[in-house]
Amino acid sequence: MAQTVLFVGLGNMGSGMCANLVKAGFEVHAFDLSKDAVAAAVAKGAHAVEDLRSFDGSGLDAMVTMLPAGKHVAQVYMEDSPQSMRKGTLMIDCSTIDVETARALGQGATERGYPAVDAPVSGGTAAAEAGTLTFMVGGAPEHFEMAKPYLEAMGKKVFHAGGNGNGQAAKIANNMLLAISMIGTCEAFHLAEKLGLDAQTFYDISSNASGQSWSMTSYCPAPGPVPAAPSNRDYNPGFAVPMMLKDLGLAIEAAGTSGSTVPLGQHAKHLYEEAAKAHGDKDFSVILPMLNEGLLK
Ligand code: NAD
User: Fold this and answer.
1) What count of Cα atoms within 13 Å lies in the side-chain half-sphere of residue 247?
2) What ipTM was assigned to the predicted interfaces of this complex?
3) Beta strand pairing status for 121-122 and 133-138?
4) CATH of domain 169-292
5) For 4-163, which CATH class?
6) Which of 27, 36, 161, 276 fits a 20 to 30 Å CA distance from 227?
7) Tens of pLDDT, residues 190-245
8) Ligand 1 centroid to 95 CA: how many Å?
9) Domain map of the chain by residue range?
10) Which numbered atom of ligand 1 lies nearest the CA of 96?
11) Ligand 1 center–CA 293 separation, angstroms
């Protein structure tokens, strides 16, 4: 019999993920505060849930959440989830939220008899639609195994990062590194061009030398060398500046609570705050034109 899933949060990411669960043969019940979002999910084969709390959850195998922030996930886990959900129903939170909340919600749900994992994603809306997301999962090994079939229906790679909250930890540490490496790559192109190298020449050398990185070879912030990069379409996202700023905020918050020292992460957050003021709707590689225009210090 098909596994039955309740999907909560049908926004930019959740809509594609929900549709991929349907495509993979799961029976999916879909809920969002937006009626339009629910209607769009129904058009792709999900069943509408009108009211979350009173929904008959006795037949559910799993609940997947894809929500904006920790407070929304806490609201659903602690207040709004179906009252009739049977013990043993697996909770999979795919949202990007703070490590502390993820750990507390995951451990709390598990203690109440609901196995729980945090499973934030790498990859944007295109990957959500194509079913090619990467999942970083925190939770007990047996709960990771339970979650795998659901995650494999929505993604291409699924990694176990350790206990509850470790999925979020992996995600924000990775994205802090991405921010730092993107800023460094932008500074290198800025400097090289000021010194008389054109972007392609610098790319050809550095991408084959020790400065090479994903930010350079997959997502080059200078227009030209990597045709699919947002730099070639006026820095339209891509991965928008506010998203990067959100993840950096979570990283700096987690650094504070864990006593970690992240001076470059702090400075990256400051630069992305400036980017959000000047170019809030642009891709996070917009740092390069901002340097060229003298907008960053
Ligand atoms: P979104 O704002 O488009 O969607 C969130 C949805 O949740 C909305 O439809 C909203 O109505 C719904 N919602 C909010 N509170 C709710 C509640 N209490 N009950 C039911 N529904 C509720 O956001 P998104 O872009 O889909 O992002 C979702 C999560 O994925 C975020 O944590 C984000 O950081 C993460 N993420 C996003 C991207 C991206 O490229 N968009 C990439 C990776 C990770």
Assistant:
1) 25
2) 0.99
3) antiparallel
4) 1.10.1040.10
5) alpha beta
6) 276
7) 999 999 999 999 999 999 999 999 999 999 999 999 999 999 999 999 899 999 99
8) 7
9) 4-163, 169-292
10) 32
11) 33
